[in-house]
Hints:
Layout: E1 3-7, H1 9-16, H2 26-35, E2 40-44, H3 54-63, E3 68-72, H4 76-85, E4 89-92, H5 108-124, E5 129-133, H6 137-145, E6 150-154, H7 156-160, H8 164-183, E7 187-191, E8 210-213, H9 215-224, H10 226-238
Parallel strand pairs: 1-2, 1-8, 2-3, 3-4, 4-5, 5-6, 6-7, 7-8
Helix pairs in contact: 2-3, 6-8, 9-10
Amino acid sequence: MARLAVNVDHVATLRQARELVAYPDPIAAAIIAELAGADGIVVHLREDRRHIQERDVRLLRDIVKTKLILEMASTPEMIGVALDIQPDLVTLVPEKRKELTTEGGLDLIVNENSVAETVDTLQSSGIPVSIFIDPDLDQIKLAHQINTTMIEIHTGTFCDAKTPLLKKQAFEKIVDSVKFASRLKIGINAGHGLCYNTIKKFKGLTEIDEFSIGHSIISRAVLVGMEKAVKEMLALIKEL
């Protein structure tokens, strides 16, 4: 069965909306998610610190019992943070100041040399690296060539598609990419935009090792609580 890593960024988004308060606490959300059965906790430490703060990541490093996944840009500052904190996995993602959330995968065709250097630096220090990329065979080839431990397939285009045809075409690209990466023996994660409905489409695509899901779980948790929201998603993943 595929694993579930829960992204708690948007708990911090709610907290940062009122900068003078310390709640809701992403640390508490992570603890509840783990107790509910999550296999890992994901946080994105952005350059602008719009939600997760460095203090959050350091506290999570001490508290998380499953796996701490740090999403970050491939920059000297973030490399330094990762080397200091030592997360269980780093996922390299693109980052733009004005975006609401990560838009698309990291373009290895444009950034191959700098990303390869980051991958080598982190993995030489014992930190496995995943690269968040679009479902594109050329991007996967490059990820394989620079010896990344795994990739995370960007599922946002599929999840956000407005018509059945566009959704079908986007999912076909995901399937082709997952099968190709599996043949290259790269670890395969998937995430971005996945919710309690779109996750059902992945039934039978057993090559995916882990799903990274945040916004939909946090949104559901606002209504039913974190424990129930995580358990509901785990139940759906179990059926895949």
